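REQUEST FORM: STRUCTURE PREDICTION
Request ID: SP-0412
Submitted by: Lab K.M.
Chain count: 1
Length (residues): 50
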Amino acid sequence: MQGLNEGHVTAVPGIPRGAQLKALGNGVVPQQAAAALQMLAIRAGLGVAA
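STATUS: Completed
RESULT:
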C-alpha cells in the first residue's frame, strides 16, 4: 500500500505493533520521495518531465 514489499515492517520479529505503526507513520512513501526529487531536478534545470 505504501510502495513497500509485504512484511517490510510487520515481518520483523520482536517489534511491537505500536512501534511498527510508528515506523510506518514516520516513513516517506518511496513514490512521494521520487516525485519530490523529480520536481526539484526540473526546477533546477537538471531533469525533464516524465
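NOTES: Residues 1-50 form one domain.
Reviewed by: T.R.
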